[in-house]
Amino acid sequence: MKMTSTIDFLxxxxxxxxxxxxxxxxxxxxxxxDYWVNSRKTNKxxxxxxxxxxxxxxxxxxxxxxxxxxGGGYATLFLMSSFLVYFFIFAKFFAxxxxxxxxxxxxxxxxxxxxxxYSKRMRILGSFLIFITYGLFLALQILGFGTxxxxxxxxxxxLAIIIGGIIVCLYTAIGGLxxxxxxxxxxxxxxxxxxxxxxxxxxxxxxxxxVLSKLPPSFLTGKEFAPWYxxxxxxxxxxxxxxxxxDLWQRVYAADSPFNAxxxxxxxxxxxxxxxxxxxxxxxxxxxxxxxxxxxxxxPQLLKIYLPPGIFGLVLAGFFAAIMSTADTxxxxxxxxxxxxxxxxxxxxxxxPEQVLRIxxxxxFILGTVATVVAAVVFNVIKLAISxxxxxxxxxxxxxxxxxxxxxxxPAAFWxxxxxxxxxxxxxFISPVEAFIPGIIVSFLTFGVIxxxxxxxxxxx
Length: 461
Prior knowledge:
With 461 residues, the chain is mainly α. The chain has helices at residues 6-27, 32-37, 44-55, 59-72, 75-105, 110-117, 120-153, 157-206, 217-220, 228-237, 246-254, 258-289, 298-306, 311-346, 353-378, 381-390, 392-404, 410-430, 436-460.
């Protein structure tokens, strides 16, 4: 493998410098509304960039490539198309309602809605699940960051994770969502290099799409990774995590109007799907070009082997942009959940906006440090990605029926979420790849049974 050239280091250094300068520039100019929801004034074109750059992280690129490389084959692309479908559903049926709710009640988070629609204990339970889920997602981003640094520079993986974690923590704590959105637009433009430079290069180097037909049928159909029903149920339910994704709720709250929130979500879904396709193709062509690679680092290995100096630095900056633009949002969501949903709302603590802003910055840095430790301990991008997305399934019935079922009751929402989460936790130790299936089935069944019994009891009274 070639060594990283001076020009590559310079390009990457300039990328990080620009990102930090934006954060420092915004640091003394923001209020807590700026820090958390960009004062609810984000236009639709900026929304597309920030939604896409936030969504496209390690899960969409490295983990997706790892699943395809590990035997998911073309079935990985079928699985990922679930997100496109649910982006459209979210745009049409949920985004305008979320925006109107946020503007009316000054909401910042998904748990704000859970308390308004159901109860305080539902807020606490939802906040806990979001905190755990986004902690896992954040560890995934930091692990991906560290994997890139380790593979490219050749340093110890644990040290690389620590370096990646420090960079993400400092940059996010400085500027909040306003700086996040500013950098997301820049990072989105850098990320386009992944599609227009790196992917075509890999396809050409491998000999074109025809070489994929030489891979074993069991690999291409996904049988080497999971049974067919996992991909089918994954298509039906995996993308549904969009409906309960706090980062998408935060972006909708930050929009300047319900119409623009809907418009941006729809077109962001198309952009996101293009990156999901790219992630799958990285894994497929990686299997052709470097079949003995580790699924954790197949993408950075492809980068280092097949790109010339200069172009290598640009595309590497694109991957760093994808990872950082997701990690910063995850950190902000966790910070908001801990301070706004747990501390302020649950314990009725009144703080001045300046105090909340100061505490948010410190909390962001501390949470990022903890996530860095988790990333170093687990050190498996696929396992972290599957574990993180599985927990979203437990919240789906409460949010879905909360919007579209007038007689949805609080006990049904609470117990379906709790029992669903317990089921998912149990199955993560038994069969991690399939854990979301029993979790979502149990969650929906619990909601239906309890809601029916509660409404019958109310009618009897």
